[in-house]
Amino acid sequence: MTTLRVNGTEHETDAPGDTPLLWVLRDELGLTGTKYGCGVASCGACTVLLDGDAVRSCTLPLDAVAGAVTTIEGVGTPEALAPIQAAWARHQVAQCGYCQPGQILQAAALLRETPSPSDDQIDDAMAGNLCRCGTYPAIRAAIHDAARALSEA
Amino acid sequence: MASRIGKVTRRTLLVGAVAVAGGAAFGVWQIRRPLDNPLAPERGATLNPFLIIDGDGVTIITPRAEMGQGIHTTLAALVAEELDVAWEQVKSWHGPPSASYFNGALMHAALPVAEYAMTGWQTALAETLGRASRVLGLQVTGGSTSTVDAYERLRLAGAGAREALKAVAAERLGVEPAALSTADGHVIAPDGIRLPYADLAEAAATRPVPQPELRDPSQWRLLGRSLPRLDMVAKVTGTAEFATDIKLPGLKCAALRLCPHLGGGMEGFDPAPALAVAGVEEVIDLGDGVGVVARNTWAAMQGAAAVEVTWTPSPLPQDTDAMLARIAEAFEGRHNSRMRNDGDPEGALAGAAPLEVEYRVPFLHHSTMEPMSATAWLHDGQLELWCGNQAPRLHVDRAADAAGIDPADVTLHTTYMGGGFGRRAESDFTHYAAKLAAALPGTPIRLTYSREEDMAHGFFRPAAIARMRGAVADGRAVAFDAQVAAPSVSQQAIGRMTGRRMGGPDKGHVEGLFDQPYAIPNCRVRGYLADLDVPVGFWRAVGNSQNAFFHECFIDELAHAAGADPLAFRLRHIRERHAPSARVLEAVAEMSDWGNPPEGHAHGVAFTFSFGTPTAQVVELTDTGRGLKITRAWIACDPGRVLDPAIVRAQMESGLIYGLSAAVTGEITFAEAAVEQRNFPDYDALRMHTAPRITVRILEDTPHMGGVGEPGTPPAAPALANALHALTGTRARSLPLKHHAEFIV
């Protein structure tokens, strides 16, 4: 049995220790907001926060998870959007939407470290998150907007 | 005139689809009778196939696939505009598969004429064909047709319902309907009394549907504005449900291992190594591959990779070079189409010093962010199916066939899809999910392709070869002769969908080449179909995606041969043929300050008329010293009337980035008839740091409404290749461009 802290709640799982965190979240705990895209940490769809840092859950084995996990479900809810989600909605970022949970968590980690990122810093931080719909211009605008909203909060 | 229509009709039936030929026998009455209403809400009332009103509010049926293009939002707005409900009250639902949700605009594209030049009688003929697709019940999302198709029908659905609700209110209040108004989901009496629609809906549903006049666009409150998308909140909170997210009691997860040698088969397999993987529960023989069912998807994928399988080889040419050789052989046979043959191209070329060049493009993968997935559950003889799909009725049939049950016993829930781009018009994932569910009755099966299986089993944009000849004189193109060879997407895909072979000239094969509004006196376009059964399918913009590259790079070459500026050269030929097309070129010239790129930067331009929407793009390229970087892009498009500007802008940006991604790095290659690319590291796309800053301008001068989901893609590759030529002098006649120059990755 492994104990996992996700979105402030303790979960027990008997999944083998080499199971990537992604599949524990999705298939064992039913937290399907985190997405599978590649399984090799090259697209960022599976991004979650581990003690506030962005990690690729598709290549992080369960028994290597040391810290509190935040998934998209822990960021905000449809009834109460977090400021970063509200910025995403204001800029109507999502198209197919599949990569957006990962994009949002990657951006949340960026804003935590760099509250007012430059375009170059956004490029560096977001380069690992693929979007086949090409929502990059909207993501960039939403990150700048979220930075402003958070600094005024 | 009659004989002319008759001739074109017969030809169109061949061009469009065998299905149309079958449909012609149904007769006119089926076209004219009211639509069957497939809705049967448990509570509340349904006034027509597009509307349910209950105590919770108004649910608008938006029966097209939402794959990111925002279609649910625009379809719902069409109904809501006439119905008079507040946008905040609107919910949308994809609804059940039904022939009532036919796509009438699909058949527009079947006419063997260039769309920009369609005359009145041709448009009328297209309308007739559109009604034929009603008879056939073609519920399809594709061809950038959804909004065009829905524009009148859904506004009429909203207006008819509004008038029926008013009629009931008028009876109850004892006043004339004309004395009543409507707003925010209420009928409002002259004295200010407000009757909620929910109280009137049940009575209204029993009335004959009135056919009111539609409102003039000047009165619109929702249409023409950028509305908050109905799917946005779900998609930023992780609550949007994709087929790979379905949760059911007792659900098991599944993965596949299919024969990597396309067209090959399976001789046998040993399940033992898979069953040894912790969590694996079943290994199932699918005939042409193996399905592994496990407690979670990870275990299923590990198990699928572990199965020891003996594959049989593929009858296809074994590697990319052999496939391209097979494609080139098509030039030796007779052409399949000659959709344009103006003047005397041979004579004009013979009298000049012709430019003669060959272009090539590779196979491409859709690579949607969500790999193919479907959830299926066979219980009590009924199959319940959840999948993202672009053709629901087709998926129902496919699932029924795989599970060995009647299509009437299949319930399909169409989910959001993590990207489509044409890939989800195919139904392979539904087939396998249904087969697995049938093998394990009572157990819900959630199938997710691994990225590697998804990559290996695509329905690719075909590789293609174009042989171009042209001549210039006095600053103008005087001859243009294009021959293009490739496997036929239309024949293959329609064959898979209908089980019948399509004959006749294949318009999709040459779209983007024969139908461009350039005034060139001697102009010929011939298509050759290659005898090559690599699976090919509808890839965003279909034939336009490769043909625009051929056409617009060659036009650039002709401009240089004529000593002309490439943009001015285009305008010179387009202005006299199609004014809205000239205006998008003029717009993009102004936006990009064409002719004056910043120091160290170069601009390339391209123009394509596709899906009814003329679109011009300028791409800016620079050499950073660490590689080439696409810094800026400007898009001007004219889809006619615009219903949601933000969605149009987003689709244009999306189409451009999709096209640029393929142009820089996209390439599927083969060895032993198996795809060599495995995952995103070897099939990448533009990312945040490599995508350009984009500016979009939308014009509304085109008289007929055009699509927006695809027209942003075709000009992207040629605009970039032309910028590469302007920057480095390299004329790239093949894609991807990474083989011609170093790009920043």
Structure summary, number of beta strands of chain A: 5
What is the 3D form of chain A?
globular
Strand order of the largest sheet of chain B: 10-11-8-18-15-16-17
Succession of helices and strands of chain A: EEHEEEHHHH
Report Rg of chain B: 27 Å
What fold name goes in the CATH topology slot of the largest domain in chain A? Ubiquitin-like (UB roll)
N→C terminal distance of chain A:
41 Å
**How much strand content do the residues of chain A show?**
5-15%
- Roughly what is the average pLDDT of chain A, rounded to an integer? 97
The name of the CATH superfamily of the largest domain in chain B reads Aldehyde oxidase/xanthine dehydrogenase, molybdopterin binding domain
Class from helix and strand fractions of chain B: alpha+beta
Structural class by helix and strand composition of chain A: alpha+beta
Query: Spans of chain A with pLDDT under 50 lasting ≥5 residues?
Result: none
Q: Into which percent range does the helicity of residues of chain A fall?
A: 25-40%
CATH architecture assignment of the largest domain in chain B: 2-Layer Sandwich
Shape of chain B: globular
For the largest beta-sheet of chain B, the strand count, sense and barrel status come to: 7 strands, mixed
Largest sheet of chain A: 5 strands, mixed
CATH C-level name of the largest domain in chain B? Alpha Beta
Number of domains of chain A: 2
